[in-house]
Description:
- By secondary structure, the protein is mainly α.
- 68% of the residues lie in helices and 0% in strands.
- Helix 6 (122-137) crosses helix 7 (140-152).
- It is globular and about 70 Å long.
Amino acid sequence: MSLTIEQEQGARKFLSDLREEIRNHAGVGHSILGRMKTDPRSRFDFKVLAGQHFPLVGNFTRYMELLLLNAPDSEAKCWLAKVLVDEYGERSDGEDHAEHYKKFMHAAGHNPGDEDCIPLHPEVVSFIREHYRISTEEPFLVGLGALGPGHEWSIPAMFELAVGGLRKAGFAESEIAYWTMHLDQDADHGAWLEEALVKYCVEDGNRELIRKGALLSLDARERFWWGVTDKIVAESTRRNLPPGTSATSEQGQLTLRELRKTWHIEARLKE
């Protein structure tokens, strides 16, 4: 579809405003991230964070794959496919992003093989559940808003803050490669995304769907960061309990391995 100059200007103004709204959202500038330079986190804090964040890394490509199935045309599919190729390891030495993240987890203190055995805060589980729901049940443009602007325009800002905290905690550059490579890759993803979105952002109805998806994702992200904060406090308290004292902070919390056995995500034909 060929756009007039006025249509393209209007679409890009909407996208510029949406970028600013995302940048200022509480899910992007959450206090656990925003205070890392003034209130440094310990390596133990990052160990807890690593365990809670890993399921988001491991499930992101699945959301994208499900959304790709519902993409209405080749242009939309092209952006999703390009991002997926990066996620699969095209620009990260042939290793997918989950494998790179595991290296960070091991540096933070998790044992190899235990990555999917960590009890997850309920808000972590809720974040994953919400994004599967968006990817399979909402209109395509809501899903694109969640996985596009909601992720690709927010992650560089969040990760820049996280990288500052990781360096203050004493992690070597080689140990945080997962985080630093996203500063470059997601900047590219965000630029590709804007070009893919322009033609969808001419009509007010489409704009609202895209914005709705971005805000659904960011609201879930804010709750996720509060869950991580709560988990760090609980784990730090349990760590400092006297020997022989029991703690129940993890009671009823599922692991990623248990979720995989419980959940069955499908793309279904609806008539």
